[in-house]
Amino acid sequence: MHRRDWTDVIGGCVLLLFGLWVFWHAQTHYDFGQMRRMGPGAFPGALGLLVTIFGLLILVPAWVRPGELPIPAVRPLLAIIAGGLSFAFLIEPAGLVPATVALVVVVSLAEQELRWLRTAVLAVALSAMAVLVFTKGLGIPVPAFRWWSH
């Protein structure tokens, strides 16, 4: 057992650094305005401060709470990265449906026990939702199947 809860220490540090970056970015790139008439940087700056405070609220107690060192899970990380890359490489030549199916199948490899039926149902459902939302609802000109659109 270690003297610190490293999982929460790492999470608190990530929130703290992200919140400080958002606050810095809002302060240096946007006008804060005044309390009577807030500028475009006031809301992101306030959110950055809020995230920084939450990071501190997680970090400080974790610094003195005992815990174990986290063991990073490499397989899920690699599967998620590979899924995103497969979507990116397939969306242009194959279309939205094959890219979405590839994304779901590759990301499902993150699990130790692959359940093909659940993966197939999820791939079909997400492909249908992607076509309905992006192509029909938002009017984004991405064909469902690229090779059928020529």
Tell me about this structure:
The chain contains 5 helices and no strands. It is flat and about 55 Å long. It has helices at residues 6-29, 42-64, 74-94, 96-108, 116-137. The chain is mainly α and 150 residues long. Helix 1 packs antiparallel against helix 2 (42-64), helix 3 runs antiparallel to helix 4 (96-108) and helix 4 packs antiparallel against helix 5 (116-137). The protein starts with 5 loop residues before the first helix and ends in a 13-residue tail after the last helix.
What is the topology?
Blueprint: H1 6-29, H2 42-64, H3 74-94, H4 96-108, H5 116-137
Helix pairs in contact: 1-2, 3-4, 4-5
Structure in a nutshell:
The chain is mainly α and 150 residues long.
pLDDT averaged over residues: 90
Structural class: mainly alpha
DSSP helical segment count: 5
β-strand percent reads: under 5%
Distance between the termini: 62 Å
Radius of gyration: 22 Å
Helix content: 55-70%
Number of strand elements: 0
Mind summarizing the main beta sheet? none
